[in-house]
Design goal:
Blueprint (H helix, E strand, L loop, with lengths): L6 H21 L2 H8 L3 H4 L6 H34 L8 H9 L3 H9 L9 H22 L9 H20 L4 H23 L2
Helix pairs in contact: 1-2, 1-4, 4-6, 4-7, 5-8, 7-8, 8-9
C-alpha cells in the first residue's frame, strides 16, 4: 500500500495514532478512526488494506530504526575482530535507547505496549531472540580465530538478554517522560554495563 502525504492521509494517520494509543491495537476500530478524522470507513480503506496495515504504517519507521541500529552495532563489534583480532568495546543497547528509542518514546510505546493482537505483539521477545542469535554467532567467530570468548549457554544468555531488554524497555511500556526516562537509563547503565564488560573480559 503506497504511503502518501495527502491531507486526508495525514488526518487518518493522526486519528489512528490517537485511537491506538488510547485503546491499543486489539480494541481499536476502523469505524472509530473514521469518526475521529471525519471520514467514512470506505475512505480510510483507500489508504490502507486493513487495521493491521494502518498500524504497520505507524510503527514500521520505529521498527526500521531499531533494525538499522542493530545492524550497525554488530558491524562496529565485528570490524575490530576482523582487522585487529581483538574485542573492542563499542556501544551497547544503552546507547540504542538513548539515541533511538527514548527520543521517539510515543512511537516505540505504540510498537511495544499497544500492539497486542497485531503481528508486532511479540516484538520485544523476537528482538531478544534475534539479539541472542547474533551474539552467539559473534562468540563463535571469536573462538574461530582463537580469541577467548565467554563460555555461556544459549539458555543463560537468553536469561541475561531478557532481563536486560525488559528493563530497558520498561520506561517505554509505561511511556515515561524524557527526564524520568533519562534518569532510569542512567541507573540501568550503572547496573548492567559493568556486568556485560566483565562477561566479555573487557
Amino acid at each position: 500500500m503506497p504511503r502518501d502525504k495527502t491531507a486526508n492521509h495525514i488526518k487518518i494517520m493522526a486519528a489512528a495514532r490517537e485511537e491506538f494509543l488510547e485503546r491499543g491495537f486489539e480494541k481499536a476500530s476502523m469505524r472509530s478512526i473514521a469518526d475521529r478524522c471525519g471520514m467514512t470507513a470506505a475512505g480510510i480503506y483507500r489508504h490502507c488494506r486493513d487495521k493491521e496495515d494502518l498500524f504497520c504504517q505507524l510503527v514500521s519507521p520505529a521498527e526500521n530504526k531499531l533494525s538499522e541500529w542493530a545492524r550497525k552495532h554488530m558491524q562496529r563489534y565485528e570490524e575490530p575482530v576482523k582487522k585487529h583480532g581483538k574485542i573492542v568495546w563499542q556501544d551497547s543497547f544503552i546507547d540504542m535507547m538513548r539515541d533511538v528509542v527514548y527520543p521517539d518514546m510515543e512511537n516505540f510505546h505504540l510498537l511495544i505496549a499497544r500492539s497486542k493482537g497485531s503481528r508486532y505483539e511479540n516484538f520485544l521477545h523476537d528482538m531478544t531472540e534475534a539479539a541472542q542469535d547474533r551474539f552467539l554467532l559473534y562468540l563463535a567467530e571469536l573462538r574461530g580465530i582463537g580469541i577467548k570468548a565467554p563460555d555461556i549457554s544459549p539458555r543463560q544468555l537468553h536469561l541475561l538478554l531478557t532481563a536486560y531488554l525488559t528493563a530497558l524497555f520498561e520506561p517505554v511500556v509505561h511511556n515515561y517522560g524524557s527526564e524520568e526516562a533519562a534518569d532510569a537509563l542512567a541507573t540501568l547503565e550503572k547496573f548492567f554495563l559493568p556486568g556485560w564488560k566483565k562477561l566479555m573480559g573487557i
